From TrEMBL:
Keywords: Membrane, Transmembrane, Transmembrane helix
Transmembrane annotation, as ranges: 12-30, 42-63, 83-101, 107-128, 140-160, 172-189, 221-241, 261-283, 295-313, 319-341, 353-374, 386-411
Pfam families: DUF5690 (PF18943)
Highest taxon above the source species: Bacteria
Entry protein name: DUF5690 family protein
Signal sequence annotation: none
Amino acid sequence: MSQSNSSKSIKTGLYAAVVVFLAYTMIFGYRKTFTVATFDGLTIAGYSYKTILVISQMLGYLLAKFYGIKYISELKRTGRGKIILLLTGISWLSWLLFALVPMRYNIVFLFVNGFPLGMLWGVVFSYVEGRRSTDFIGAALAVSFIFASGFVKSVGAWLMTEFGISEFWMPFYTGLVFCAPLALFVWLMEKIPQPNEEDIEYRAERVAMTADDRKKFIRDFLGGIIACVLIYCFATIFRDIRDNFSAEMWKEMGFFNQPAIFSKTETPITIIVLVMIGSMVMIKNNFIALRTAHWFIVVGFVIAGVSTLIFKYNQLSPIAWMTLVGLGLYMVYIPFNAIFFDRLISTFKYASNVGFLIYIADAFGYVGSIGVLLSKEIFKVKLNWVTFFSSSVMILSVVGVLLTFYSLYYFSRKYRKNINN
């Protein structure tokens, strides 16, 4: 590759990384701000009102992920900016109706909010996959989950504490803050160039998939896909509990009415994960990168489990624990959203797309998250959120390590078989 082409590729990668990071951060402003509110004392039929809200939004996400297996895998590369603005607009309108409709009946609007937002990751990632710089760009997009989660909660908490906006109106006004920047960054995403011939040669062409294409892919990689889905399911459960109920956990640990606390833990995680995953762009061999991603995930599970064990013995402060367990969980979660599936496709040279695989994993991940929340409410588990979360992390981290080793063995054997043939 000539020096001029290399320089152009680097500039495109940096531009795309910044734009998709900022765009998805703005999108998060329409999704997660309500979780900063605790809705203390509010119940419906004896169940926690906030938990019902979280489950309602997750159900919307869940259905979007199952629908997205088909929709995102067949997505064309035109009109994507309009799709993003339309879906985000629907989610914002749902927050207005959530504030206007009485409490018992406004639960449905969390479902309405979740469904369109659940489609957006696949649309945004389609701008960046299949490039030599996808590892770095994908890492930037994926860590926006971490940064945005803390940032938008801080904005929501600030609106409530500084302007006296109620818990019910806060999500709508937060959306108002983000609407103009979102439109700008979507417009800038539309300016990202398509992958060139060298990108396609190195990473395999990314194309819309037919039903037969999807069936063949699953048939050829069934064992590995099952392992990856289970790993991702565990990561999603952990991440969602920490993300949706961090306000409750901070309150239980003695931190209350401190809006900056959310950004204080998430910002260092964002930087560390971005550097670690983004640096994998230096690994040219796709199979070595795929193998490295497995080890990255193993280390993440170990960090989450060990830090939680130390915290339970009162040898780690709450802030250090929330930061370390978050780092570990995102080291598991982020590779699947940034590099794992992209390198998998590149290793085996399948004409397909990442959206298909991540939406399979996401769909079952949300099944797990909803199942955990429903179990806690239906069976009236009396543990507080810190105890419930920490106990679960230690157990499932061990299972996660074992599954990751199996996945590594499966894809390594598959790769050697392909080479021999």
